[in-house]
């Protein structure tokens, strides 16, 4: 019995080593199934540089989806627990539930507060770009058949 346990332990130890030896081929890295080195000079792309005052908003992917960020955010980063530029414009508890004014920052919805009355943000959501992502004009890396309707 002892011998069997020892053999199993040795096998368990040698397994990860065997997997690491094989490694990943270039074709297995990334989403596309070709070598990552096939295009040494990939096309550059830029996120929107639009100012919030003129950006307008983007169509929602589906009801309940986090709206995508229509304006530049590079100058507003990083977002930390204690320093968050996004809330300077979007945290407007007195606007919750009221009709949105075009061109004004969309007010954070009630779901983003622990208490709207006390203007207390839900800190579980402090990292806005975990869910709200800026967009760049690029082709999809993989196809998909999602239909917004
Ligand atoms: C200077 C003020 C300002 C700052 C700072 C700001 N925003 Fe905005 N944001 C706006 C305005 C204004 C709009 C809406 C424009 C409109 O309705 O025409 C907007 C729109 C949005 C929308 C789309 C809302 C919708 O209704 O579709 C999201 C999401 C958003 N911002 C996220 C962010 C995040 C994340 C940050 C921080 C990285 C941020 N914003 C910082 C002013 C700001
Ligand atoms: C865990 C994901 C998540 C995080 C983090 C998050 N949001 Fe949202 N947000 C959502 C979802 C989902 C919606 C749409 C549904 C809803 O209203 O709750 C939304 C809606 C919004 C809206 C549109 C409200 C409306 O009336 O249409 C704005 C503006 C917004 N969020 C801004 C922010 C900002 C700014 C932060 C950072 C302080 C943030 N969100 C953090 C998921 C998130």
Main attributes of the structure:
149 residues; binds heme C; mainly alpha; single chain; 2 strands
* Structure ligands: heme C
Element string (H = helix, E = strand):
HHHEE
What integer value in Å does the Rg equal? Answer: 24 Å
Q: How is the biggest beta sheet arranged?
A: 2 strands, antiparallel
Tally of extended strands? 2
Strand order of the largest sheet: 1-2
Number of helices: 3
Unreliable spans are: none
Into which percent range does the helicity of residues fall? Answer: 10-25%
Give the terminus-to-terminus CA distance: 62 Å
Indicate the overall shape.
Answer: elongated
Question: Strand content of the residues, in percent?
Answer: under 5%
* Global mean pLDDT: 85
If you had to describe this structure to a student in words, what would you say it looks like?
- The chain is mostly helical and 149 residues long.
- The chain has a domain at 52-130.
- The protein is built from three helices and two strands; from the N terminus they run αααββ.
- Strands 1-2 form a two-stranded antiparallel ribbon.
- The radius of gyration is 24 Å and the shape is elongated.
- It starts with a helix and ends in a 28-residue tail after the last strand.
- The mean pLDDT is 85.
- Bound molecules: heme C (2 copies).
